[in-house]
Amino acid sequence: MRAVIDAVSDPIYCKDHDGRYLLANRAHSARMNIPHQQQLGKTVFEIPEIGELADRFYQEDLQVLTTGRSIVNQEQYVHWLDGSCGWYLTSKYPLRNAAGETIGIVGVGRDVSERRDAERKLHDERQMLRTVIDAVADSIFFKDQQGRFVLVNAAYETLFGLPSEKVVGHTDRDIAAMRAYAEEYAADDRHVLSTGLPVINREEPIPQPDGSDGWFLTSKFPLRNTDGIVIGLVGIARDITAMRRATEELASAQNRLADHVENSPLAIIEWQADFRVERWSGRAEPLFGWRAEEVIGKHLSDWPFVHPNDLETVRIAVTRLINGQDQRNVCLNRNLTRDGRVVYCVWHNSALRDSKGRIVSMLSLVEDVTERVEAETAVQESQRLYHTLIEATETGYAVIDDRGQVLQANAEFVRLTGRPSLDEILGRSVIDWTAPHDHLRNAQAVAACVATGFTRNFETDYLWPDGHILPIEVNARMIATSRGRQIIALCRDITDRRAAERERQEIQRKVQETQKLESLGVLAGGIAHDFNNLLTSILGNAALAALDLPSTSPILGQIRQIETAATRAAELCKQMLAYSGKGRFIIRRLDVNAVIAETTDLFQVSISKKAALSLDLATALPAVEGDATQIRQIVMNLVINASEALGEAGGSVRVSTGVVRADAAYLATAHLPTELAEGNYVYLAVTDTGCGMTPEVRSRIFDPFFTTKFAGRGLGLAAVLGIVRGHRGAMCIESEPGCGSTFRVLLPALAVPAEVEPPPPPPASGWRGGGTALIIDDEPAVRSTATQMLRALGFEVKTAYDGVEGVAAFNADPDLFSLVLLDLTMPRLDGAGVLLKLRELRPDVRVVMMSGYNESELVTRLSADGPAAFLQKPFRFNTLREKLQIALA
């Protein structure tokens, strides 16, 4: 037993109840530096080598002896008397007898100084490591094989707001803040612990205190013991939430920027320092047609990109950027697209330089301005064409301010003002060359244009320095410019237009006069037609009454007076028909000189004794087409009118003839220009030296029943006008008050000679007819008178009151009638229509047409197969007999 105790390297000793050593092994004796025999039986106070430690040892012994409880592994730092010191691990146990009573103590000591030194060093190292770990800004944690936290650093505690004691010993599932992603964390932990392989730079979500998700960049490494066995893991987590958000925001910003770039209306081209394409985006591909992969890396000169005529412009802009003359510049040039189109582009170029001023890259923002350039070109071309048009149309163009002062003008406007040069009018008011009578109107027109914004078709007169008045028309519009309100005025010389307007007014006056005369002619013709029907009854009944009376009857003279009065009334109706152009015309080729010569004797007895008549008839006068009786009527009426114009003072009347070459201008001056053709005209002129006429009188001389004479009827000149119109001629009148008058009648000249008038047929005084005659007339008086006349001539008579009844009566027995006396103008069916139907029923029927109008009216209304004879109303008994004899011959 003793040998075993001595073999133990740790000090072992026994003490009795009084603290005296009973036993000590060699290790204890060596430590106390006292031989074994010298210790036995002594207390700690009795051994000098123990020194000051005796009292501490005694108290510990006393504690065990009195309490009976052991002191186990108590570490103490001991300073020995020999100067040595160290840490000792002491254990003291009570020594008991068989009865269990404490009778002493057994002590065991161990020098643990080396261990304590190692532990201290380990502690210091751990403390230093902890300090380092806590100093790291990233979160550091240690976990055991079960995934429980073993250690976390200060950054971890701060990040999660949890002290280490609430984390250490727990898993991720145990911590509420990590529970949402605990399985994701545990999966990485298992991977590291099971495979021994690290997980590096894993981005892991982590809930934030505000409820949002944060992000960690986590790396986990296996933790091994000295045998290389994985006993846990160490993790480093960096909070990259801000960086992640910044990255996301940057990526979003870059995406937005990329979207903006791609959706930008600009082409965005980045060039390397050597002018090779680095970036080709935005509208580059749609604008130029090349894809990015086709041009990136190409030099500016490697493909046909710049219009050949603009290469120098581009070279200058590039050179200025390279030389540093421009930090940025703008260049307008033409570019070529992939398909060969030409586009106009504005290049906004800028250079990016490094700290040493060297070009890093260049950026071009390219705007397609083709439409704008083309529009501007079109506007310029339009303006050029506009000004050319203005110049070509001889339109004056002026820019005027709101006070009427000229700011700009073209050459035509200068000419309109009558001034020699533009300098003479610039800065001056338009009033300066406006005629005085238009000063106020012109000023008002300028003010109105300023107020309303425009002036249309304003006519005014400009006064030239030489006194010439030039009429112009102004159209103007007010526009707002950067220099204030301005008036754009377009002015035209309207001299020709005013002359044309006067001519138009004159033509219109003549047309109105012609229409008035035609209306009056229709009225006069209608009245004459109705009077002729009445006079037909009067003359016919008078003739019938005379036939029944003996030649010695006193009533016969009264009947002759009735016939004379009716004949004079018939002559008046003839004049009315002549005025209306519907008088009876017997058209032949006439020698006007011969007609005048035949009427000379009648002139002499018809004019005033104070009038000296003279004839001035041209030789070899061409023939005219006309009615000799009507031509005589013209001459007679004009001569009588001229004679009466001389008045009591007397004077001369000259009748002249000749040929005139009438052009359009000459015919336009005629009183009755009924679309006459240019050519040769025979004229018949009657000139007097009488009182002449005022314009007012001249305007009314052809009105029916207008006269300046006390006893005049006012039908002489009206009849002349009607006859001239019927002969498709015209009249020219020259007259001034106190200077006499000249009436010149124009008749179209013929290229063939005049006809010789045949002798009149012999009278048919004893002729009588026979058979049945049909009278068709809407006038009861005419039917009654004609019936009596025909019966007196030996005819049986049937009558019809209009054309429809007449056709029905003839249709009942066409062969019955040897003669039809037919009126031209009737209601329902006129004479022309009746004649056609009668010819259909019996082509050889003999028809005598009656009318209050002339025979020419009949010709115009009937076909070539006309009546057998024409009877002008009113007619005498003998005239009826002559026409019937001709029709039935």
Description:
With 889 residues, this protein is of the alpha+beta class. The chain is built from 26 helices and 32 strands. The strands form seven sheets. Strands 2-1-5-4-3 form a five-stranded antiparallel beta sheet, with helices on both faces. Helix 17 packs across helix 18 and helix 18 runs antiparallel to helix 21. The radius of gyration is 73 Å and the shape is rod-shaped. The relative contact order is 0.04.
Arrangement of strands in the largest sheet: 2-1-5-4-3
* Total DSSP E strands: 32
User: How far is the N terminus from the C terminus?
Assistant: 206 Å
Provide the low-confidence segments as ranges. Answer: none
Question: What structural class results from the helix and strand content?
Answer: alpha+beta
- What is the 3D form? rod-shaped
The proportion of residues in beta strands is 25-35%
Q: What's the pLDDT, averaged over the residues? A: 84
How many DSSP H or I helices?
Answer: 26
What's the short version?
The chain has 889 residues and is an alpha+beta fold.
Keywords:
five-stranded antiparallel β-sheet; alpha+beta; 889 residues; rod-shaped
How is this fold's topology laid out?
Layout: H1 2-7, E1 12-16, E2 21-24, H2 26-32, H3 36-39, H4 53-67, E3 71-79, E4 85-96, E5 102-111, H5 113-135, E6 139-144, E7 149-152, H6 154-160, H7 182-195, E8 199-207, E9 213-224, E10 230-239, H8 241-263, E11 266-272, E12 277-282, H9 284-288, H10 292-295, H11 311-322, E13 328-336, E14 342-353, E15 359-368, H12 370-392, E16 395-401, E17 406-409, H13 411-417, H14 439-452, E18 454-463, E19 469-481, E20 484-493, H15 495-547, H16 555-580, E21 587-590, H17 592-606, E22 611-616, E23 624-627, H18 628-646, E24 651-662, H19 664-668, E25 679-688, H20 695-698, H21 716-726, E26 730-735, E27 741-748, E28 772-776, H22 780-792, E29 796-800, H23 803-812, E30 817-823, H24 831-841, E31 847-851, H25 855-861, E32 869-872, H26 877-888
Parallel strand pairs: 22-24, 28-29, 28-30, 30-31, 31-32
Antiparallel strand pairs: 1-2, 1-5, 3-4, 4-5, 6-7, 6-10, 8-9, 9-10, 11-12, 11-15, 13-14, 14-15, 16-17, 16-20, 18-19, 19-20, 21-23, 24-25, 25-27, 26-27
Helix pairs in contact: 15-16, 15-22, 16-21, 17-18, 18-21, 23-24
